[in-house]
Design a protein that fits this description.
Radius of gyration: 19 Å
Number of strands: 2
Number of helices: 11
Strand content: under 5%
Distance between the termini: 33 Å
Strand order of the largest sheet: 1-2
Shape: globular
Length: 259
């Protein structure tokens, strides 16, 4: 058996294991995002949206749909890999994988693939939920929709893996979502256009990487963005390279895993 065939089998095995894991407990992994996003649509879209009217020239409900989909992608990408990898580390299963002939990049790709699968399924569910609140969802640039959702999901899968490596307890993997992801997401232009902010806060918002993800995704749907689409894609690609390099280094060296 060639190395490429063996690596493909290893990759497929890890990916299937990860997908089976979250599909087996779908009531806990796929249903809650649908309920949460429904509440967002009802409260922010229907109730608040009727008072706001339009945002950046489109109906408020249409404006927040891409942001809410991206929010669900970010949350589920991160939580899936963080919880799965930490569980494997906690049970000392990951050590067997690291000492096996499977390349580090294949291990990372397997976990990232599982996280992306869950995130994309949730994204489809949230999109279906949005049809109950929006008559029609327009897609201006399907290529940017696919590109930004894949890059964003990959980025937060890698982030979840890195956090799981350094986490000492199950509580440690919930710190980042609570104190980092949630504030960045809410301040990332999901519910508003950055152009409405005072100039100073517009500049501060430009430091938030989630802003580029949300606006890149919104550009794919509505054809408009608060930031240049080229800059948004560049930021996503740059962070992906950085996070992959970090994840590869710490796994290859066994940092936080091998005793």
């Amino acid at each position: 058996m060639s190395h490429s065939t063996a690596n493909f089998i290893a990759l497929k095995t890890i990916w299937i294991k990860e997908c089976t894991r979250f599909l087996r407990i779908w009531v806990q992994t796929l249903v809650p995002p649908a309920i949460t996003m429904t509440l967002y649509f009802v409260i922010f879209g229907s109730i608040v949206g009727e008072r706001i009217g339009e945002m950046s020239g489109v109906g408020y409900m249409e404006f927040i749909v891409p942001g809410l989909i991206m929010m669900s992608v970010i949350t589920n990408s991160y939580s899936n890999v963080a919880s799965s990898f930490f569980s494997a580390k906690f049970q000392r299963n990951i050590e067997e994988m690291l000492v096996s002939p499977v390349p580090t990049a294949v291990i990372i790709a397997g976990y990232v693939g599982g996280g992306m699968a869950r995130a994309l399924i949730v994204a489809v569910i949230v999109t279906c939920v949005s049809f109950f609140f929006v008559e029609e969802i327009q897609i201006a640039h399907i290529g940017y929709v696919i590109l930004t959702v894949i890059l964003t999901s990959t980025l937060f899968c890698l982030g979840g893996l890195i956090n799981a490596v350094y986490g000492k307890t199950f509580d440690d993997i919930s710190i980042v979502p609570t104190f980092v992801l949630t504030p960045l997401t809410y301040l990332g232009g999901v519910f508003y256009s950055v152009s409405l902010l005072p100039e100073f806060w517009q500049k501060v918002s430009m430091v938030n990487p989630v802003l580029y993800m949300v606006n890149g995704f919104r550009y794919g749907f509505l054809g408009q963005s608060d930031v240049g689409i080229g800059i948004a894609v560049s930021v996503l690609v740059g962070f992906n390279i950085l996070f992959f390099a970090a994840a590869y280094y710490i796994l290859d060296k066994g940092i936080g895993i091998r005793s």
